[in-house]
Amino acid sequence: MPPRRKRPARKDPDRPPESNRARFSLEASPTPTPNANNDEDDEMEVVETQPQEPLATDADADAFSPNADPDSDSDLSDSENVAPMTLNNINPVGKPPEAGVIIKVYVENFMCHKKMSVDLCSNINFINGQNGSGKSAVLAAIQICLGAGARRTNRASSLSSLINHNGKATHAKLRVKLLNKGSDAFQHEVYGDYVTVERVIDKNGGSDYKLLDEKDRKKSTKKADLDMMLDLFNIQVDNPVAVLDQEESKKFLTGKPEDKYAFFCKATELERISRQYSSTNDSIEDLEIQKEAMIKSLRPQKVIVDKLEAEWNECLKLESIEEKISNNKIFGAFALVNEVEEKEQAHYKVRDKLKAEYEKLAGKVKDHEAKKPSAGDSETREEKAKVLSEEAEKAVESKRNLEEELRSKKKPVKKMENELSGLKRELKKAEKNCANAKTALKKARDDYLANKGSSEGEKSKMIEKQKELEEELEANKEKAVQYQEKLNSIQDSYEEKNDRVTDREVQIKQTYAQMKEQEGLLKMLSKESGAGSLAMFGSKAPELVAKINHGHRKKIFKGNVFGPIGSFLQIKQGKEKWAKLAEVAIGNMALGSFVCDNNADVAILRRMRKETQCRSQELPIHYQRPSARYDINVARAEGVEICLDVLNITEDLIHNFLCDSARIERKALAPTKEISQTNLIVTSGGRKSVRGGDIQECYFYPQGDHWQLKNGYLSLRSNLQKSNEFNRTLIGKDTAAALVDAKQQLEYFQAEYKEKKADIADLKSEATDEKKSWNAYNKSSKTLLTEQSKIKDELHDLQEKLEDQAQDNEEEDHSHLQTEVDETEVEVEDLTKAIEEKETAINDEAPEIEAVEAKLDEEAARNQKILDELDTVMKEIEESQGLMEAWEAKLEKGNKKLASYLVDLEEAEKKVVESSEKLAGMIKVGKTLLWKKGRIDKSNEKKRKRLMEEPPRTQAEEDEDEMSQSQSQSQSQSQTQQSQDDDDDDDDNDDMEATEPTDAELDEIERPRIMKTSSYFRAKQTKHEEELEKERKKRRISEADTKAVWNKFSRAREGLASVKRGIDTVDGNLKKMKHDLKIRKRKWKTFRKHIAYMTNQVFGEMMNKKGSSGEVQFDHTEKMLQLTVQKDAHEASQTSDVKALSGGERSFTTLSLLLALGENLETPFRVMDEFDVFLDAVSRKIALDTLVEVASSMIHRQFIFITPQDISRLTPSPTLKIIKMKAPDRSGNQTTLD
């Protein structure tokens, strides 16, 4: 069928039409009936609607061309063969369900059901049950709820008959829930994704409609809204192809060919369109009659217009005298211009002098502005300071690493030194044992010598020498041990002092950085203290606040004005530790903002801000709509604060502003990053989210950095503020107390720095002395070792000599004592050798340790150099700031002086402007009079055009003027000349106001040269006005008579023109309507041929599924439709009498024809009731398969099939739903479904 076009308002003009809603607009456009007596403003307007073209083959292109000749009848013959049009694919695969699909049907006290609810699938639905189970009640509920009458259901003659009265119900309630998604949704912003239509039927047969949204809330009770929605969704419950009940199905094929053709036209809406075309023909005939009547009324009106025009021309003869009056008015006006122009020149001289002085001072101020200290140098120094700070931190870190490396390298050396100390203790013990053994040997030898009585002198001397050498060697060894212990003690002391020096250097650097930071803070606070605490929010804040306070006293503000915002904020008691983070979270821009609750105050405040010469980003001004304080409810986590919770905000306007602009209810504060992430962030499936879902950002100490969570990913943001800026607190701050604290803190840091510098100098001096002492002892120790070696060599030689002599002399055996001495000496030598090896190993490690120590010294020197350089840069920054402040002070002084000059100059300029405006106004008056005179001088036609701008007076107004004139004639004729002058002046003003020239026209008029005074021309004007009045009295024509004649003439002429325009409008509309109707009829016939062709094609395909064939024959001239059916392959089975078919064959044929017609139907759902009632098993199987196949190919459409037959062979799926109705309960009411 030709579907209805969707409402244009719901379509996107830039979007191509959707394939599933491609439609033909064949309906005739509305036909307005023009009124012949309408004024020009009420002229009928006819808009020709261009029909939307369907896609067609080349053979049909000419037939559907909008430029086709409407007089051509080449395509109007029904006997021509028509090629099928190629339609858009209206059933694309995978398209989602259309808007209008039925989701649910609910009935209450309806037919055989007390309560029933049926949920439907969006594609294929089979409602199955025994006769009397209430299947058809579902169909009837859909029809009734969507606007059909009771007779359409073929179940009752009135709505009240459909109420279930078994339970003494007084009404029935029906509900149909429709899908409302996609581009064709009906008022989606109102109803949402679903629209529910509710119809309540009372016992008297009355009914009410309701449209409910997706939450079952009532949105409309108008039947017009329901019709609009059904039209938008293209739901046609009265169309037998869309909704086929049992009765329609039974009588469809049994009717006459004329009835079948009528069914075809009704199903495809060709009948409705044809009726509209007939209605349009009637409208065209009515317009023809109206046009003839309007032409007849022209002749008498033309006679009246000619008579009134002659009377008007007589009145124009007085224009000559009026022209003289106009000339004197013009010359008098320009004479006054000359007099005012002389006064203007004096004002110009005063203005020019002040302007020269102002420009000179402005030049000096500009030169001073050009000498502004370079902000780039300051920024460069600050960047350099930042870089140096980073380098210092890196140097400290590098030094720590070197110290750690030194400790790691010294650790094994310490171990070896401990082992060396143990060896030395063992050596000392061994040397003691050796000494004891030697003492015993000496005593034995002494005893031997004493017993022997005498010995050889040489042997005695050698023994004596041996004794002396052994004593000397022993003393030397004891002294060497003492020296070694002393060296170890000195070395330990030196290393301990060196470590203390390193620690002191780190402490000094930290103290120095803290001292410099505190100096910057003190300087900032000193500046803020001098300018007041408001200066913390901007240098111009105190001045702007002073202006606001002055404005409040003058009551120039209409509402509340607050600012700076930061001055109205306080930290809650016990929450002071969060102050710095809260400031970072809010932002300096918001803290320094001003907020108003109306736009008028915003404009005033911006003007004040401009007067204070604020920088572009300084002290911004915002508008906040006044409302109650926002009710904030966000999830909170343990150990984490919300920015809003730490602030004490007394003003609702400020509270709402910070929630809207700074989002303080969405920002969290935490002691550390780790705590914030532990308490707030939840990880699931590799993606992160915030516990509770309310927090968007979290700020944390120590430097005010923060993180954001977006799309499941965490991003960290560093705080770009410098450390001293971060340490500054703006919220709820006492500047004086902060200044005292800052001074005390600075004094503490300075004293600590001085003390640590002195301490490190003492430590370095002590370490140097220790190093010198160690070198001296080490030198002495080496000398002792050399002497020990010599003594050992001498003892060895002497021992050999004694042994040689002992062999020659018989002596007492002291070999065991000598063996003991030798063993102890070997032990001493082994220990001495082990000590030397340990010392060698320690000495081998010394170069690496010394290299690390050298690097450490180098890094410490580099660190100190960076600190010195950083100190220098900070001093340069302070000096640069001082220069900038001096420059700004001088510039401010110059600007104030310049402002003073500007006030005087503006006053002088104001006088010049006032005199110039006065002069320009007078010149404009004169030129306007001259322009009007030019219009009068052109011709009488020009004067008529000027008067035409005044609306014609009505007959009632003229009658009232005649009555007033009659009353004035009965009064005294004695009136003063002054009164006459006033009346004349008023008339002149009316003439001037009748029409005014444009500025471009005035510029083209040259100013005349006038040599006489204005009083001369006023006297001449008075004289001519008296003359004009005499002529009017002589001819008995007053100004009111002239206007009355003009009003009558203009009304008559306008009436005549209006009738002519009406005739032209009617004639144009007739031509357009005839042309449009002819094109539409031609397209209607082409479309009818296409539908007939497609119906025949699809009908044959459907019949083939059963092994039969069929043809649909259309006779559009006689309006008949014949069906030819061939049951098998034999032509003998072919028949054109449908009654000759069996019941099952007729049912299948009916089903095939309905499916064929349905191919052209674009309704969101179709319903068939008992379509298979007469089908045999084989035909039913084919029919079911065909229905499922066709419905499955249109997944976006909904099909509802009602049958009492067995459908167990069908398998439910997501797109196919089977609804089983309970067997009828003869004793009660059916209430539920299986």
From TrEMBL:
GO MF: ATP binding; damaged DNA binding; single-stranded DNA binding
Keyword Repressor attributed? no
Q: Where is the composition biased (Acidic residues)?
A: 980-1004
Give the SUPFAM superfamilies listed for this entry. P-loop containing nucleoside triphosphate hydrolases
- The Rad50/SbcC-type AAA domain is annotated at 104-316
Its taxonomic path starts at: Eukaryota, Sar, Stramenopiles, Ochrophyta, Bolidophyceae
Keywords on record: ATP-binding, Chromosome, Coiled coil, DNA damage, DNA recombination, DNA repair, Nucleotide-binding, Nucleus
The scientific name of the source species is Triparma laevis f. longispina
Similarity field:
Belongs to the SMC family. SMC6 subfamily.
Q: Its Gene Ontology biological processes?
A: double-strand break repair via homologous recombination
* Region Disordered, annotated ranges: 1-90, 365-410, 804-826, 940-1035
Q: Which Gene3D superfamilies match?
A: P-loop containing nucleotide triphosphate hydrolases
- What domain of life does the native source organism fall in? Eukaryota
Intracellular or extracellular location(s): Chromosome; Nucleus
Protein name, per record? Rad50/SbcC-type AAA domain-containing protein
Where is composition skewed (Basic and acidic residues) in this entry? 10-21, 365-407, 947-956, 1022-1035
The UniProt entry's GO CC annotations, sorted and at most eight, read:
nucleus; site of double-strand break; Smc5-Smc6 complex
Keyword Coiled coil tagged: yes
Q: Where is the composition biased (Low complexity)?
A: 964-979
